[in-house]
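Example 3.
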Amino acid sequence: MLGVVSMDTLPDSDVPEIAFAGRSNVGKSSLINALTGRKQLARASTEPGRTRELNFFDMQGRLRIVDLPGYGFAKAPKEVAARWTRLTQNYLRGRVNLKRVFLLIDSRHGIKPSDEEIMKVLDSAAVVYQIVLTKTDKLKPNEAQKRLEETSQKIARRPAAFPVISATSSAKRDGLDELRGEISTLAL
Ligand code: GDP
């Protein structure tokens, strides 16, 4: 894992990258760990100490996973994008090898105002983002289906939103193979 705090020290842009974003506690570390099959690859949000802003994980030289800082923790939605510091915003706007952002949404809560703020940033940067619903094990199948439909309606008119939504549970390992399949289309 490579932690980066400045645009000057980003790794070479010769390998495709995908980035994971979401509100704090959405299950981002759990999903990254589940997808990569490694334990504690991504740090839990509760880990004390300074968190490097962008964390890069090499996937056998074919792809890099970039863990973006969580957002939205008890903050007004307007402040969300502002708290995503310049490095994160510069990374999103200027990274030529960034293939897609996976925007994680807790399936119990759906898209929140803070997520909408992040979508605005991604829409204006023309970075394609794919919604990934997390923690679907916490919902009954019909509730999960409803959330999926509601979410696809909410993104329908957003210019950079990828039309396919993934539904996942890291705990039950549901939806991970489909998501891996989607990700592998972006790798070298
Ligand atoms: P992060 O802050 O987005 O990195 O979130 P974490 O991965 O640290 O997860 C936040 C909390 O949600 C932890 O208590 C996890 O155990 C829990 N969690 C994460 N994924 C799932 C899931 O798929 N199902 C359930 N039931 N809990 C989950």
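Strands lie at 2-4, 17-22, 54-59, 63-67, 98-106, 129-134, 166-167. DSSP finds six helices and seven strands in the chain.
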